[in-house]
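Dock S-adenosylmethionine; give full complex structure.
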Amino acid sequence: MSTTLRKPRPGDRIEVSWLELDDRSGAQRVRGSAAHPSGVYDCSSRSGIPGARVLAEVVRRRGEHLDVRGLETIKHSEHAVPARCAHFGVCGGCGFQDTSYALQLEHKRGFVQRALQIHGLAAQAGCVQEVLGCDQPWRYRNKMDFSFSTKRWIETDEPQGAERGFALGLHPIGRFDRVLDVSDCSITFEEAGPILASARALARSLGLEAWDLERFEGLLRHLVVRKSAATGEILVDLVTSSESPERVDPFAMALVQSQPCITTLVQHSHDRPSQIAQAGPERVLFGRGFIEETLLGRKLYLSAQSFFQTNSCQAQVLGKVVREQARLPGAQLCWDLYCGAGAWALCLADCFEHIVGVDSLEAAISDAHANLSINALTNVRFECAGVEAFVFRPGAPLPDVVLVDPPRAGLAESVVQALLALAERGTKRLVYVSCNPRTAARDCALLAKGGWELVAAVPVDMFPHTQHLECVYTLVPSRSLGGMA
Ligand SMILES: C[S@@+](CC[C@H](N)C(=O)[O-])C[C@H]1O[C@@H](n2cnc3c(N)ncnc32)[C@H](O)[C@@H]1O
């Protein structure tokens, strides 16, 4: 007689072996396995270190998968390191900081390889190189967006009745309705902590209220801080629900006086319900309204809204990889699609006779034009257009090399079709910069079906202690490798 064994239920306790860091759920998690009388279960949790064995509580079961919460450690992992940040475990920011950096890099390479395997490119997973890690995996962020809120996250060790109506910091894990008062963020530049403390104290003493996320009222919404690694200049962007100069200006001036490291302060104001920091009209309240950064010897002016890689040091590493992969002897024309403020075009200007950069955001193209003129480059042209329309423009000269750096969602299908047509017509190389291994793998697989072959993938860790990374994929026409795919 066969008996059906009961499967694990929420609240049950189970022993789990943690095996790998994981980005499959889109969040930073650890994945492992647990043996149970009813079978072997795939487990995941927000915290845990590969190599450890823990006693855990089942939170949820979906088929053969369990979401669990660790209760106690049975065997410690040799990859465990002390988390550096005081807010670790509560803040939703960087969940891998209790795992050695060397193991983070090894597993991040696995993210890129696994995504390729899932999309049928198992053979190409071998061309994924070791991740280029950060020499300084702390204090690497040159920009951080902190939020004000009327709903402060209360920590477990706080006394009863602690004031909860004002906060300035980051969201706790999975709680976008609350804000954790952050005293210092260990991945952001050093001056950010004192700036936050001053802003918090001044707002309270001047009686400025924080934005209420449910009632859509209150003045202070975000405080975005940005620092140049090249010059040390610091830009603060104060985002408010209305301009209110009579209330905002005294606050801004007092903040600049209390934190002389701030070289410029701007204000954006909007009262939309969405939590977008950079929106609405800009007022420059102090300084010149931008900071100056450098990338592989080129100058960039960064305003509050300009896009720039958030890790200045690794941006140089990524720039070098882009140069190495895109550079081709004798190549004349390069397209830099999704060019933003033109960072890659500036880095590649001496490798091609002509570069055309394309981005649909007017503000980005305006930054790109400013960057062209400060670097006195005459062989680069920027155009404000959607890539989907640009790639189908009739009569456009054939590019030798195409560089694409799309948003996380990856390439539109029509753009993939246009790139396939370029391989047919004779474009010699396609360099794909991506911050999302899954959509990049999907697009590489579509490109591989029609004439592009993936020959190298170089991951660069721009975001230590998080699940994020950038990767530069290099594709060449399959016929140049001796046969169509
Ligand atoms: C990941 S950023 C790349 C920025 C730039 N390559 C850099 O590293 O500085 C993606 C860019 O794509 C642009 N973008 C998004 N959708 C677009 C589209 N359909 N056509 C053109 N540009 C687009 C965004 O404005 C953004 O600047």
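Observed: The CA atoms of residues 336 and 352 lie 12 Å apart.
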